[in-house]
Amino acid sequence: MRLVGVKDLPSHLQFNPRVKRGYRPPMSLNDCLSSICYVHNESFNIYSHAFALCYFALVSWLDYSNVWSSESLGIITCFIVLDYLSSCVPFIASVVYHLFMPHNSGRHTYNMLLMVDVCGVWFSCTVGALSLIYCSLQCIPWLRNCYLMLYAVVSLTCLVFLVTSTSAKARVVPLTIQFCVRVISHFIRLSPIGSGHPSAVNYHIIMDIFAAAGALINALHIPERWLPGKVDYIFNGHSLMHISAFVTLTFGRKGFLLDMLWLSTNNHCHRI
Ligand SMILES: [Zn+2]
User: Fold this and answer.
1) How far is CA 146 from the centre of its chain?
2) pLDDT 10s digits, 215-236
3) Cβ(91)–Cβ(53) under 8 Å?
4) Residue 19, CA distances (Å) to 62, 122, 172, 237 in order
5) Shortest CA distance to 8 belongs to which of 16, 21, 18?
6) What pLDDT does 267 receive?
7) Spatial contact of 206 and 149, defined as CB atoms under 8 Å apart
8) Domain ranges for the chain
9) % of the chain surpassing 90 pLDDT
10) What is the distance in A from the centroid of ligand 1 to the CA of 45?
11) Alpha-carbon torsion 39, 40, 41, 45, what sign?
């Protein structure tokens, strides 16, 4: 397959002009599928998240076996199912988006695929944070329930903005608001009214630092803004964000497992 430069692409695929070479031209569904067999500038994005999907789909069961038993509370089982989904869904969506983005049916199909990718990120952020918030306020049930409802309302509003936004910049705003609500829950956990495993908050904070750094690097096109045409295949902003997404969910998983261990004990709120 002959690869093309950014100027040879339809306008809807020219979203990062600093990545100059290695693009697949518009192609059929079968050609998109066949493109996993040769190297182009989306290969790293496809393979990195396919690896992340396999990793979380398989390793998760080992992780969960350390915190789950047949006597576990129903809420722990529920959070484990949600954690599994929030660890796998974004990577499935990402692989689909990157694999089929040059499909020759044009802008409309591309926008649909982009929406699949964005909604995968939203799903992971939303569902993955529920156990975190629950444990942070577990010892004050009324406040915990109010905060979870607030998070649900903010997240659903974000989803509406995400699917109706027409630019990448407009999509940053709702995800940032959702991110801020999650960060506030870290401060609550660190305050005298907070709860959860004492060590889990460190992993949750590292998780959000990597999430924010990845989003920022991708949005600012770092480092390709300084090295145009030099990082076309790997280590451009988007591929670095792919690595940070994997690291983000790895740290999130560590915090989640500690919280589930903490939740499985029956005396965790005695200090309140
Ligand atoms: Zn991506």
Assistant:
1) 25
2) 999 999 999 999 999 999 999 9
3) yes
4) 39, 26, 21, 10
5) 21
6) 65
7) no
8) 42-264
9) 86
10) 6
11) negative
Q: Does domain 42-264 have CATH number 1.20.1070?
A: yes
Tell me how far the alpha carbon of residue 226 lies from the centroid of ligand 1, in angstroms: 21
Q: Is the pTM of this model over 0.70?
A: yes
- The helix-helix angle for 141-164 and 107-136 (nearest 10°) equals 170
How many angstroms from the chain centroid is the CA of residue 257? 18
Q: Say how many Å lie between the CA of residue 116 and the centre of ligand 1.
A: 11
The alpha carbon of 186 and the centre of ligand 1 are apart by a number of angstroms equal to: 27
| C-alpha span between 139 and 136 (Å, rounded) | 8
* Ligand 1 centre distance from Cα of residue 156 (Å): 22
Within 10 angstroms of residue 111's Cβ, the number of other Cβ atoms is 12
Distance (Å) from CA 140 to ligand 1 centroid: 39
